[in-house]
Amino acid sequence: MAENNNNNTNSESQKKSNFIHAHIDEDLAQGRNSGRVHTRFPPEPNGYLHIGHAKSICLNFGLAEKYGGKCNLRFDDTNPSKEETEYVESIMEDVRWLGFDWEDRLYYSSDFFQNLYDFAVRLIKEDKAYVDDQDAETISSQKGTPTRPGIESPFRNRSVEENLDLFGRMKDGEFDEGEKVLRAKIDMASPNMHMRDPILYRIMKAHHHRTGDEWCIYPMYDFAHGQCDYWEGITHSICTLEFEVHRPLYDWFVDQLQEMDYRPRQIEFARLNLTYTVMSKRKLLELVKDGHVNGWDDPRMPTISGLRRRGYTPESIRNFSDKIGVTKVDGMIDVSLLEFSVREHLNKTAQRVMGVINPLKVVITNYPEGQEEMLSAVNNPEDESMGRRDVPFSREVYIERNDFMEDPPRKFFRLGPGREVRLRYGYLIKCNEVLKDKNGNITELLCTYDFESKGGKSSDGRKVKGVVHWVSAKHAVKAEVRSYDRLFSDEDPNGHKDVDFKEFMNPDSLKVLPECYIEPFVKDSKPFDHFQFERLGYFNMDPDSTPENPVFNRTVALRDSWAKAQKK
RNA sequence: UGACCCAUGGUGUAAUUGGCAACACGUCUGAUUUUGGUUCAGAAGAGUCCAGGUUCGAGCCCUGGUGGGUCAACCA
To answer: How buried is A65 (Cβ within 10 angstroms: 0-12 exposed, 13-18 middle, 19+ buried)?
Structure first.
């Protein structure tokens, strides 16, 4: 039985098919690219990866896997002013953590700077590129508008010799930033703005994280991407929808590359949007820089590192990615699907443990003082092979504060004055007295236990419906629990024109519960270990933990049909 | 007033060469249950943006609309 459950997590073989498969199947049927399928994941190392990148990673590596092809990791590092080694390292860590392997195919666009330069020289010689002396503003003003054609630069018809000379001197650092650019000579009247003599190279006297000060001219994205695809042997260059209008330019460059026995093709898909969060690097960076969250790996962040710290598993993210599919429809996925994916995985794999995050002390008055005993608990009802463990029991225990109500509503199965419930894996207890402080707050419950009910079964066959989790006060591990809610209170914080997205931040996205009691089993756990705190949710140990103050993050709560019914 | 792209239950996706709209999440019942979890059984919810056309037959094809998105960084 347990073996079957484990096999179910292997969903690789049942991936949904999508429109990209159709394209590839067609290419294969036509005998293109000698039947090769080669993709790449090409992040710019200017920030941390988020769940949207995970979709792209799963897609690209997934295609390679499906078609017996390859997938490269490429850092698109053509803009030294924004890129840092810190980001390169975090990206590699995240891709590996998700479970993908680029083997020996790690590339950087900067690996191709010389090739790109040589290619640019060739275009100049073929009279397909020229040096423009005008400043950014002027060039922009000549570009026209989407509905009106642009006008040609006065420098457009320089001689090949002059262009060659000028471009060489740009490379040699003779000019300042902004003084000159290299442009492709295409068509200033094209209905596609990207074809109106796009800029190929700009002067940037910035230190590059890999090439240092070797270059002072850097290629633009459009001039680098397709060519790198070509040189790496990429057959299917998958990117997001906003690059759709760049495709004619992508193809124009690839056309110039001639002598090819194959041709990389750009295919666009819709980027992931999730409810109640933001996904743009700019906005995520803003949240980090302005201290709205505690770093890129804050468990409330949609970053891979944030999700990891929150307690998400690679499997759950991969399954999520598979479930949402791949299309060109610009939509918005409900976070509940992401949450479903972790619950689904953790339900099958997480160690169960009892933990009380909102403690209320219960004294079992007829249990002998000083006595204690061990009770046997199941580690995971979904996986018998995980076995059982002993949980200590004694006279004083903590239960969840909201498992007791003085004046319970209908259908409340838990503890109340004069009521009886089962302590999970333990005894039946009955509440006899409620102690309060002078303000009327409940401070303690006095209960008696049925000593014949060990293990939870009544000796006389009476039915007790309620079951509550508990922790022996004497043996409990005191811990801090961090409980998270959505970062934004609006479903689509980006969807409001003229209102800053930060206006929609949820002020209660983080709740710190400093005094929680967990059964001693968690004493040996390490950061990132997963647990289900029974009846509450999935939690994992946070790296902030110390032996004196273990910290647990609530990954996601269990489904709670009682709480749901109460809201109505 | 241009080019390109998109349009199927609340959400996300399916629907062999056109053949009575399927699945998942979510929602709601009920059963089981020492997790109000899980599991199981079941229900509601779209007639496929609109209008024409082709066809015996259209979510799939054609035409024209409508709505939405992207594009005018020396960003990617």
So the answer is: middle
